Amino acid sequence: MGGAVVLVSYRSLPGxxxxxxxxxxxxxATVQAVEPDCGGITMLQEASDPTRFTLIEHWPSxxxxxxxxxxxxxxxxxxxxAGAFLAGPPDISFWHLVGGA
Length: 101
Known about the structure:
Distance between the termini: 9 Å
Number of strands: 4
Structural class: alpha+beta
Strand content: 25-35%
Helix content: 25-40%
Strand order of the largest sheet: 2-3-1-4
Order of helices and strands: EHEEHHE
Shape: globular
Oligomer: single chain
Radius of gyration: 14 Å
């Protein structure tokens, strides 16, 4: 698969793990339902620290992720409400597949 693999890492506030999981999961469902450029999102929760979540997202390009995707109303609403359950902004990094992997 070409394009960009985007890793998005979140940390929930103490005592807000369930809320963070629910809100991030809801956002993923919305993105996958209404954004045709999204090639899929997998959500992981760290086994040794359940406050940490990582999303593995597939997009046609970094520009589409940073541009049209980040401007979607559901993304903007999530960003505005996230301070109630997340410890800070996410760490976002962009990756690409190497060779035949």
